[in-house]
Amino acid sequence: MFLPLLHVLAALALAAQATPLEHEPTRTVHSDAVAPPNCFPALGFTMPTAVPSSLTNWWCDFSTEYAFVGFSYEVTACQSLAELKSDFKTIRKTFKGRYIRMYGFCDTEGFYNNVVEAAWDAGIGVHALIWFGFDGTDQWIGRRDALFGILHSNPKAKFVTRALQFGSEPLFDFVLDPPDLAAQVTAAKANLSSLQIPVTISELAFGYQEREDEGSQDVLDAIDLIDAHMLPFFSTQASIANNSFPLVLTDLDWFIDNGEGKKIYFTENGWPSVTSSGVQPNSPSAVANVQNEHDYSTVLDSHCSFFKTVPGGGVGWFWHIYSDNMEPGYGLFDVNGNMKFPFSPRTSC
């Protein structure tokens, strides 16, 4: 299911993007570049036959999770367990993905149990999501409580849930006042502390910037890690994807300067192959086609060494999104299930 309003809002947000840097800054290189195969969800890790008794030494270090880490994966279609298992295994085995980042919502009772089971079966981790939506309702409260219940009751859940995202662009969408959102993050951290699940929000740099006077820094202070949206197609300075990296650096450097050394992932991150009513550029020079979608992935892949050196353990990036059936124009796969372009990004360097 396509959620078009998100990109209408993202387009407006990134129209205010600042002048990009012309050159990459120099970073300090991390020594532990590649995850050993004895931690989850490292490539080569073998899932145990039984659920471990402890999370001790379970998760790979954040510093090994840079470059390509997986796909955003929309769940509004409420996929069956069989479909989740098939897709997650493809992400893991074909593309060497270590994670899926949930997008959208499925309110079918117990759905996250299926996500957990499919992730365990595929040996892949999850950035879970509490979806707020755009209509100002309080449905998110029920989604929060249902997800918390499964995280506590399903014995596998804490072993595949790498992080909990409290909304997708909740600051930019004005779903809660920043102090209230920060309080929700803090309460979630307390609720999930025994499960050792970090809590964050998935947000544009502009989402924080536009609500700075209302206390958005409180949210940035409260989150455990940074799930950043990176959609340079919507910049007023956008042209072709091959020219996009300075735009990426502008927002990335804002997160580095204000993020207190926290781990950074690009969770909603891509370039569209088509425009639509919900995906319109803010620059007359911005080009949307399959070649530019492909080129953007190549731009990211070519900066693997740079991403490895970013403070906080490097930048891991997701591709938004798995299929055009989820969000037209952004998928790696088209609506007929065919790959739109070759895709084999680096997972380490």
TrEMBL record:
It is a single-pass type II membrane protein. It is found in: Cell membrane. Keywords: Carbohydrate metabolism, Cell membrane, Cell wall biogenesis/degradation, Glycoprotein, Hydrolase, Membrane, Polysaccharide degradation, Signal. Belongs to the glycosyl hydrolase 17 family. Residues 1-18 form the signal peptide. It comes from the Eukaryota. It is an enzyme of class 3 (hydrolase). This is glucan endo-1,3-beta-D-glucosidase. The keyword Cell membrane applies. GO terms for cellular component: cell surface; extracellular region; fungal-type cell wall; plasma membrane. It catalyses: Hydrolysis of (1->3)-beta-D-glucosidic linkages in (1->3)-beta-D-glucans. Its main location: membrane. One of its GO terms (molecular function) is glucan endo-1,3-beta-D-glucosidase activity. It comes from Mycena pura. Glucanases play a role in cell expansion during growth, in cell-cell fusion during mating, and in spore release during sporulation. This enzyme may be involved in beta-glucan degradation. Active on laminarin and lichenan. GO terms for biological process: cell wall organization; polysaccharide catabolic process. Its EC number is 3.2.1.39.
